[in-house]
Amino acid sequence: MIKVVFVDDHEMVRIGVSSYLSAQPDIEVIGEADNGKKGVELSLSLRPDIILMDLVMKEMDGIEATKQIIEAWPEAKIIIVTSFLDDEKVYPALEAGATSYLLKTSKASEIAGAVRSTFHGQSILEPEVTGKMMMKMRQKDVTHPHDQLTSREMEILMLMAEGKSNQEIADELFIALKTAKTHVSNILSKLEVQDRTQAVIYAFKHSLVK
């Protein structure tokens, strides 16, 4: 069963989509929340396979909720389900770590399909979102691999340069050891280096640390 948590402040939307998903033989909605703050708490507590996340909600919006979930649990798979296609919503949501992006005009069967595809490692984007991302990629000039690092990954790279182990990094940042290891792995991948030593050499070579 693909376990799902649904975060949306529109009760009727939650009821409709959750009912459809729960009727599927391979999907189970194990939790619902009506705002981003509760969504973060529920997601980190239940650790579902997929999180369906609305964007505009009270107390905490979906972008901030996505950031907090990914910060604490980098492996989380989040599907944005929203009514918005404007740039100030799309880009921050994807940059925060969302895996897929759907509109609420999508059929319930399409959302179910996105849940399955995202669960199996695919990224599902609305065609208009894909077009926007392609344009943004053409316009964005990434001159160095480290431009891809998140602020948290840059922070961890600094600690690596200080000679701190994964456990020491985890203790200093108050995160799980597994999370620290995931961040380090992502850093090595983004910098296109083989090990921690090469990552530190890269950091000094590019004056990221002094």
TrEMBL record:
4-aspartylphosphate modification sites? 54
Its annotated compartments are: Cytoplasm
Q: Which InterPro entries match?
A: CheY-like_superfamily, NreC/VraR/RcsB-like_REC, Sig_transdc_resp-reg_C-effctor, Sig_transdc_resp-reg_receiver, Tscrpt_reg_LuxR_C, WalR-like
Q: What is its main location?
A: cytoplasm
Source organism, top-level taxon = Bacteria
Key word DNA-binding present: yes
Question: Which residue numbers delimit the HTH luxR-type domain?
Answer: 142-207
Query: Under the cellular component aspect of Gene Ontology, which terms does the record hold?
Result: cytoplasm
A Pfam family (short name) is GerE
Q: What are the BP-aspect GO terms? A: phosphorelay signal transduction system; regulation of DNA-templated transcription
What keywords were assigned to this record? DNA-binding, Phosphoprotein, Transcription, Transcription regulation
* GO MF assignments: DNA binding
Q: Where is the Response regulatory domain?
A: 3-119
Q: What is this protein called?
A: DNA-binding response regulator
